[in-house]
Write a structure and sequence with these properties.
Elements lengths: L9 H23 L2 H19 L5 H43 L5 E2 L4 E7 L6 E5 L4 E3 L4 E3 L4 E8 L3 E10 L5 E12 L19 E6 L20 H20 L3
Parallel strand pairs: 1-8
Antiparallel strand pairs: 2-6, 2-9, 3-5, 3-7, 4-6, 7-8
Helix pairs in contact: 1-3, 1-4, 2-3
């Protein structure tokens, strides 16, 4: 239903969604709370905070004011709880959608990607992968388990949705078990969206199965701030805070 949004550049899409959600949340908060009560509680908190600063030499009185401030804070929190609960579920759903379509760069034709299988201790044998037409498996179709892991590298040639299959063969060449999952190959980086694959497999043989997707970074791999490389969530949080604070001040929302 929201596929048309994936035609928008990711950064622009995140900016738009951040502004829209923040704006809606501010109006819902204003509509569902008694702003007169919220204003009174906010002013009471400010007065109590100012009073505490004058009571550093009177610990007994400071403790009483602190207790009163905690009670006022709780009243403020309880009044703001209703709009928070109303907006919680939609935001979780939107975050889930963004995580599924924006969090990682898409797998695209012409660029290699890898799949890593990790097995439990003591599992030995070979992994035979059945490769559908349109994909090429680098270095053949048979891989021996080493250090409990197997890493397969694929070269996509044609866009589309593919089912990848892996079969464990024991040392006698007998098939023990087969696993499979889907991957979606896009024709270009502008075509967002991907098929999530399990990172944990509840299995007595296979511990994890991971498609190594490239994390979407706002400024690419070249930018790093003390090791931090901002992604979509960082941009969402920053824009949401700015929009929310600005609207609250403009609309006198407490």
């Amino acid at each position: 239903m929201l596929e048309f949004l994936l035609t928008i550049q990711p950064i622009i899409l995140i900016l738009v969604i951040s502004v829209v959600i923040s704006t809606v949340m501010v109006f819902i908060y204003k509509w569902m709370t008694d702003q007169d009560v919220m204003k009174r509680l906010k002013e009471e908190l400010k007065e109590l905070q100012a009073e505490i600063k004058t009571l550093r030499d009177n610990p007994t009185k400071m403790a009483d004011v602190n207790k009163q401030m905690m009670e006022t804070n709780m009243k403020y929190f309880m009044h703001s709880m209703k709009p928070t609960l109303v907006t919680f579920l939609p935001i979780i759903l939107i975050f889930g959608w963004l995580s599924s379509n924006i969090a990682f760069d898409p797998l695209i034709t012409g660029e290699e990607f890898s799949v890593e299988l990790e097995f439990y201790e003591g599992i030995t044998g070979n992994i035979i992968s059945t490769v559908p037409k349109g994909l090429t498996l680098i270095n053949g179709e048979s891989y021996t388990i080493k250090d409990n892991k197997v890493r397969l590298v694929f070269q996509p040639e044609v866009s589309g949705k593919y089912t990848l299959q892996y079969t464990l063969q024991n040392n006698d060449g007998e098939a023990v078990k087969t696993w499979e999952h889907d991957v979606r190959i896009a024709s270009s980086s502008k075509e967002r969206g991907y098929e999530k694959t399990p990172t944990v497999v509840k299995d007595e043989i296979l511990k994890t199965m991971t498609v190594n997707l490239q994390k979407f970074l706002l400024f690419g791999d070249s930018f790093s701030l003390f090791g931090w490389q901002p992604g979509w969530l960082s941009l969402y949080i920053i824009v949401s805070i700015i929009v929310s604070l600005g609207l609250r001040k403009m609309l006198n929302v407490y």
